[in-house]
Design brief:
The chain is an alpha/beta fold. About 30% of the residues lie in helices and about 20% in strands.
Length: about 325
């Protein structure tokens, strides 16, 4: 694979120290949480998600595991502005998780300008996307992308926006490391989604960088991209599109929700997350999430805003989408 023109970076996070293990009581095969990977050295990967020994019982999406990662990202790390040390720390944790699950992990770095993010001035600097591809991924074969933005506005711990989406992506990656998906899936934690000014050119920097660096084969063979953004609030899963290329992806996501017996809603025209970068590039994409909530983009966006049951609903829909 040409690996989306990415540069492989080995991430470490020796400065962090967390002990929480959301999977300690699980009967499934142990797998790392963000808390588990903090402070550990990144092992060399010798097995792939498809090669790891399967447990006796099927691995299932676990909303409790996802919520534990919301607590780590929003409760222990907190605000993760795209050029900040906190963002770098969060990206290192996500990188390490992907690596320990057996994916081929790359870091795609890009520059973002200074600007104003939700009323607060932010500096120029570097941010990054963390990309996990299944070993042996071939850009000449059809595939899916599932992603969520890791950054926040400067004043918000970002539990719902968007530790919720990242946590679901991480849990989907855990399940996909053991269970078959209908097509290869690339998982991405995007940097710098939050606005630094008005208009599309000042928003979604990470996904814009991602689509700009895709090869012709990668563009041609992408079946669908799904962005998970604000997926932990509400009792139905919003399914949204930007109005350009989203129709087949939205239709497939609705069918997946019906199969999973999960209530869903339509949020109409929505261009405010990373799916929009893909749509603008002519690539099929849609969004899960966007239920309105009172803590949006402020200091009260803390873990108790997020519902484990809603994380579970979203994960069930997304897993149904990528597995069947």
């Amino acid at each position: 694979m040409k690996r989306l023109a990415l540069v492989l970076v080995v991430a470490s996070c020796a400065a962090c120290s967390m002990t929480e293990d959301p999977g300690a009581s699980s009967a499934q095969s142990p797998s790392p949480s963000l808390a588990d990977t903090t402070g550990a050295t990144s092992p060399s990967t010798t097995t792939s998600p498809s090669e790891t020994s399967k447990p006796d019982r099927p691995v299932r999406f676990d909303g409790d595991r996802a919520f534990a990662d919301v607590r780590t990202l929003a409760g222990r790390i907190g605000p993760r502005e795209a050029t900040s040390d906190a963002f770098t720390r969060a990206a290192a944790l996500v990188h390490k998780r992907f690596d320990r699950l057996g994916y081929e992990v790359s870091r795609q770095r890009f520059r973002v300008p200074a600007g104003n993010s939700w009323g607060i001035d932010v500096p120029s600097g570097m941010s990054s996307n963390v990309v996990a591809a299944p070993p042996g991924f071939d850009e000449n074969e059809r595939y899916l992308i599932v992603g969520a933005h890791l950054d926040t506005v400067p004043q918000a711990p970002g539990a719902e926006d968007n530790a919720s989406g990242v946590s679901v992506v991480m849990e989907l990656a855990r399940v996909a490391a053991s269970e078959a998906t209908r097509l290869p899936v690339i998982f991405v934690a995007f940097g710098a989604e939050e606005p630094r000014g008005e208009g599309d050119d000042w928003h979604h920097f990470g996904s814009q960088a991602f689509t700009a660096r895709m090869t012709p084969a990668e563009r041609r063979n992408l079946v669908a991209m799904v962005a998970l953004d604000r997926v932990g609030v509400g009792s139905a899963v919003p399914i949204c599109g930007g109005g350009l290329t989203n129709a087949p992806v939205v239709s497939d996501l609705r069918a997946a929700a019906r199969r999973a017996n999960v209530p869903f809603s339509s949020c109409g025209l929505n261009q405010s997350s990373d799916h929009w970068s893909f749509e603008r590039a002519g690539l099929p994409a849609a969004r899960l999430g966007s239920t309105a909530y009172a803590a949006y983009h402020d200091a009260s966006d803390v873990p108790n805003v997020v519902s484990t049951r809603q994380l579970q609903r979203t994960g069930d829909v997304a897993w149904e989408f990528i597995s069947r």
